[in-house]
């Protein structure tokens, strides 16, 4: 509710937002919830599916992430990319915190509008839209979108002529976890100029430039370069076409792990290329996805089967094969689509829920294992080789943290496994 919301927010008046204490608070809250839920389930008695995998989401972590963004990138208004994780409570919270939204389809637009959020808070950030979706965006007053090709401009002229337009430019994103510029973005300055000229001759409302340096990017030079390239287009538009653009969209791709450096490079480059005194009316926006949710979610999975052990008492040095009730066709599809390498951690049934890493130093014995999903496909392998601190049994649980980005949104029901995992919520702030 509003009262607890504002008091949670008030905690962040100053200082570092992420510290050892915040991490501990989060782990305790999440661990407690995992424990409570798992203890309720008796694998010998439960109904089919009651022991399905589930997420725990720490909404307090989302608050910290958002607040950290505002602290470190004060000039940049985030439009959260809901393709990354469309959990309704997370979206509501981000809306309350003041975040806007990046939608890429009618479905995503509907999701935001049905929550009562204003269409003004949406950027329709997809440069290649179907005619019917463009008509729909006009109908529901979504009036800011991206484009990167000539046909798109003719479509927009016909179907949504007053829409505000951001020219998406390509970046050098080959080093990123998921490169995007192979598919989107005007390729060079000359093409961008031609596209801007067509906007002018069609009397379209060109308002700015957008780019994305690749999802999970690590090359800070590409961010610097993309801001510089954008600046050149702002200058050209004003000096040659008389168009005074006022929105710069620096896209997504940020991660919490590298945010210190990436936010500082963004600030430096923005101040150098778009100083506030020369661009007093400029709105700088971004489309972060994974940054806002990755560390806020933990996935708990149940061990449904095991191979490689001949009897119950065997204390083996051989690699065992563990089969979980979630995998590459379910919420761990991020291994395939998003090139993530989630680490399976252990949940013991005897009280404490410890992270595998915390065990590491005190390990006297390490058990080799491979970890598999539940489907009949050999591709469904979560980890070919890992080492565990305990020999796990059927009925034990494992969990994966940092698993909020590009997971549940792309899970399938292949083989008839239901993968709409439930989400339990805690708030560590
Ligand atoms: N904006 C656009 C246009 C995208 O395509 C994506 C991801 O594919 C994002 C934003 C979000 O990127 P990330 O989750 O890496 O921040």
UniProtKB/TrEMBL annotation:
It is found in: Cytoplasm. Gene3D superfamilies: Alanine racemase, Lyase, Ornithine Decarboxylase, Chain A, domain 1. It catalyses: L-ornithine + H(+) = putrescine + CO2. The active site is at residue 376. It comes from the Eukaryota. It holds the Pfam family Orn_Arg_deC_N. Catalyzes the first and rate-limiting step of polyamine biosynthesis that converts ornithine into putrescine, which is the precursor for the polyamines, spermidine and spermine. Polyamines are essential for cell proliferation and are implicated in cellular processes, ranging from DNA replication to apoptosis. InterPro entries: Ala_racemase/Decarboxylase_C (IPR009006), De-COase2_CS (IPR022657), De-COase2_N (IPR022644), De-COase2_pyr-phos_BS (IPR022653), Orn/DAP/Arg_de-COase (IPR000183), Orn_de-COase (IPR002433), PLP-binding_barrel (IPR029066). Belongs to the Orn/Lys/Arg decarboxylase class-II family. Signal peptide: none annotated. It is an enzyme of class 4 (lyase). Homodimer. Only the dimer is catalytically active, as the active sites are constructed of residues from both monomers. Residues 59-294 form the Orn/DAP/Arg decarboxylase 2 N-terminal domain. Keywords: Cytoplasm, Decarboxylase, Lyase, Polyamine biosynthesis, Pyridoxal phosphate. One of its GO terms (molecular function) is ornithine decarboxylase activity. Its main location: cytoplasm. The keyword Lyase applies. It comes from Pachysolen tannophilus NRRL Y-2460. Pathway: Amine and polyamine biosynthesis; putrescine biosynthesis via L-ornithine pathway; putrescine from L-ornithine: step 1/1. This is Ornithine decarboxylase. Its cofactor is pyridoxal 5'-phosphate. The keyword Transmembrane does not apply. Its EC number is 4.1.1.17.
């Amino acid at each position: 509710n509003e009262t607890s919301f504002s008091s949670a927010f008030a905690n962040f008046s100053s200082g570092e937002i992420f510290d050892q204490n915040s991490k501990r608070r989060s782990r305790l809250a999440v661990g407690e919830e995992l424990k409570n839920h798992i203890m309720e389930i008796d694998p010998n008695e439960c109904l089919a599916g009651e022991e399905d995998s589930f997420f725990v989401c720490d909404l307090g972590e989302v608050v910290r992430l958002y607040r950290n963004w505002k602290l470190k990138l004060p000039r940049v208004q985030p439009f959260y990319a809901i393709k990354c994780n469309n959990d309704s409570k997370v979206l509501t919270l981000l809306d309350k915190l003041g975040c806007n939204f990046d939608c890429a389809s009618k479905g995503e637009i509907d999701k935001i509008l049905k929550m009562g959020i204003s269409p003004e808070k949406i950027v329709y950030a997809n440069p290649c839209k179907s005619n019917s979706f463009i008509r729909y965006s006009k109908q529901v007053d979504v009036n800011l979108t991206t484009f990167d090709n000539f046909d798109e401009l003719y479509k927009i002229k016909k179907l949504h002529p007053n829409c505000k337009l951001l020219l998406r430019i390509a970046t050098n994103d080959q080093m990123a976890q998921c490169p995007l510029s192979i598919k989107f973005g005007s390729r060079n300055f000359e093409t961008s100029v031609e596209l801007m000229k067509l906007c002018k001759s069609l009397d379209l409302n060109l308002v700015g430039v957008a780019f994305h340096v690749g999802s999970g990017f690590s090359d800070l030079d590409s961010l610097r370069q993309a801001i510089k390239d954008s600046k050149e287009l702002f200058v050209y538009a004003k000096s040659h076409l008389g168009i005074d653009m006022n929105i710069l969209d620096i896209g997504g791709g940020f991660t919490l792990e590298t945010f210190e450096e990436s936010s500082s490079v963004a600030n430096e480059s923005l101040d150098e290329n778009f100083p506030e005194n020369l661009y007093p009316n400029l709105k700088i926006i971004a489309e972060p996805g994974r940054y806002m949710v990755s560390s806020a979610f933990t996935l708990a999975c149940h061990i449904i089967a095991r191979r490689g052990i001949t009897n119950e008492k065997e204390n083996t040095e051989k690699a065992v094969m563990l089969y979980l009730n979630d995998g590459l066709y379910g919420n761990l599809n991020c291994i395939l689509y998003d090139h993530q390498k989630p680490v399976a951690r252990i949940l013991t049934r005897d009280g404490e829920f410890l992270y595998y890493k915390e065990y590491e130093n005190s390990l006297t014995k390490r058990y080799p294992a491979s970890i598999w999903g539940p489907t009949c496909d050999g591709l469904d392998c979560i980890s070919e080789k890992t080492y565990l601190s305990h020999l796990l049994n059927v009925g034990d649980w494992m969990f994966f943290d940092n698993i909020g980005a590009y997971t549940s949104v792309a899970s399938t029901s292949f083989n008839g496994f239901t993968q709409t995992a439930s989400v339990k919520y805690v708030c560590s702030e």
